Amino acid sequence: MDLKLKYGWPFPKNMSDPPPLSFRLLSGLVVPMVGTFSKIVLTWCNNVNEHNVDRLRELVGERPPGTPLVTVSNHYSCIDDPALWGVLRWRYLWNARVMRWSPAAHDIAFTRRIYNCFFSYGKCVPIIRGLGVYQQAMDFMIERLKEGAWVHIFPEGKVNMVQTRMRLKWGVGRLIYDCPITPVVLLFYHIGMDSVLPNKAPYIPRVGNTVTVVVGEPLDFREMVKEMREQGEGDERARKRITDVIEEEMGKLRDKAEELHTKVKQKL
């Protein structure tokens, strides 16, 4: 396994809020382009069975300034991000400052120089699987959260092609525990994205499928984090406790999503 970035770290050293003008200009081109693709693929070419999605829209675009947001979902298809963001309003999809930061596998999304540029301007952060929770990508995303940004993460750590219930990785726990301002955390579960883009060749988006998206209610970890810090909870133990809560809630959302998806499919 190659544990190095082929083209080096893709972001400017000074990524304070606001980022450098050059990054803002190029990101301002890539993000709307990808957002348009997402809207077309998800909501124009396929059918979305939405449940509580307005909660996601509200937190993405209308949360108080300076409030960090972490969204968490399952990962069933390579097109989950960005296509799932097609449920958002146009004014968010075309706003590079509003849209999410998200980790992306360095050995898939950052293997060529043009990919390196495209994905970084699209606000994807190269994560090196196997390097653990203390790596540059995680530090970078915590810095973005400190600025009140939105970070989305797939804590399964890979595309779950067999759709089994997997133990979630603790990186999500670190994002929440190590951020000085405890983020709002929103979970959602989706079913059907692997029909929009099957996990086998030819990798061409399909049309006419049904995708179910079930969004939960925001999770508030402030008291839990405060208590663990006051009690001197070890970092590893703290990350695990937070991730365990998320894993349990994701299981509940999965059950609900599967039930709702089955019902809508039976009506078709």
TrEMBL record:
Membrane topology, as annotated, equals:
Peripheral membrane protein
Task: List the SUPFAM superfamilies.
Answer: Glycerol-3-phosphate (1)-acyltransferase
UniProt keyword annotation of Lipid metabolism present: yes
Annotated localization: Mitochondrion inner membrane; Mitochondrion outer membrane
Reactions catalysed: 1,2-di-(9Z-octadecenoyl)-sn-glycero-3-phosphocholine + 1-hexadecanoyl-sn-glycero-3-phosphocholine = 1-hexadecanoyl-2-(9Z-octadecenoyl)-sn-glycero-3-phosphocholine + 1-(9Z-octadecenoyl)-sn-glycero-3-phosphocholine; 1'-[1,2-diacyl-sn-glycero-3-phospho],3'-[1-acyl-sn-glycero-3-phospho]-glycerol + a 1,2-diacyl-sn-glycero-3-phosphocholine = a cardiolipin + a 1-acyl-sn-glycero-3-phosphocholine
Question: Which Pfam families is this protein grouped with?
Answer: Acyltransferase
Is Ribonucleoprotein found in the keyword set? no
Membrane-crossing residues? 21-42
Q: Give GO BP annotations, semicolon-separated.
A: cardiolipin acyl-chain remodeling; inner mitochondrial membrane organization
One Gene Ontology CC term in the entry = mitochondrial inner membrane
Task: List residues of the Phospholipid/glycerol acyltransferase domain.
Answer: 69-189
* Domain of life assignment: Eukaryota
Q: Name one GO molecular function term.
A: 1-acylglycerophosphocholine O-acyltransferase activity
Q: Which UniProt keywords apply?
A: Acyltransferase, Lipid metabolism, Membrane, Mitochondrion, Mitochondrion inner membrane, Mitochondrion outer membrane, Transferase, Transmembrane, Transmembrane helix
State the signal peptide span: none
Which InterPro entries does the entry link to?
Plipid/glycerol_acylTrfase, Tafazzin
What family is this protein classified in? Answer: Belongs to the taffazin family.
For this entry, the protein name equals: Tafazzin family protein
Q: Which organism is it from?
A: Petrolisthes manimaculis
